[in-house]
Design brief:
It comes from Phialocephala subalpina. This is SnoaL-like domain-containing protein. The chain contains four helices and seven strands; from the N terminus they run E-H-H-E-E-H-E-E-E-E-H. The chain is α+β, with helices and mostly antiparallel strands. The protein has a seven-stranded mixed β-sheet. A hairpin with an 8-residue loop joins strand 2 and strand 3. The N terminus is likely disordered.
Length: 162
């Protein structure tokens, strides 16, 4: 297993790395089809730590979950701080930061993401998203409150109650 800074290293980029970078670029495009494109049809996504009690999501649930969040965030951007690739187990771990804004203010979060890939490294079959819950939960509760008070309900805010 080797640790290589994004864009660093020598030689040709592995298919695994290309797939994971495409996933991050999908988030940076802020288009749900690009976000979902690198995912295997049976992929699952987990938001961690488990103390957040978030359900494991298949693609249908993840698309619905993320599509509900997208209208409230603007200028969303993910930056990869470090990337660790495990060619034997076909996984990549990323330490990343995201920034963006909503109508309640600037947003910034730190993540550890683990992507499990198929044998060819072309599709993500499982992803683990460790969020900085000390930042995420208060921000999302406040955003949920704003949506309830100012915009009415679309279901997003029900995920983040006080």
């Amino acid at each position: 297993m080797g640790s290589v800074a994004p864009g660093g290293g020598s030689g040709e980029m592995s298919q695994r790395r290309k797939t994971v970078i495409a996933a991050i670029e999908g988030y940076n495009s802020w288009k749900i089809d690009k976000i979902m494109a690198p995912r295997h049809p049976d992929a699952i996504h987990e938001i961690l730590p488990k103390t957040l009690e978030r359900p494991v999501m298949n693609n249908t649930h993840y698309r619905s979950y993320f599509s509900a969040i997208m209208p409230y965030f603007h200028n969303f951007h993910v930056t990869i701080n470090d990337l660790i690739e495990d060619p034997i187990q076909n996984k990549i771990a990323i330490w990343a930061k995201s920034t963006g804004s909503t109508e309640i203010g600037e947003y910034s979060n730190e993540y550890m993401l683990v992507f499990y890939l198929d044998q060819e490294g072309k599709q993500i079959v499982r992803s683990l998203e460790f969020v900085d819950s000390a930042v995420t939960m208060p921000y999302m509760v406040e955003l949920g409150k704003y949506i309830r008070e100012k915009k009415g309900s679309d279901g997003f805010e029900k995920r983040y109650n006080e």
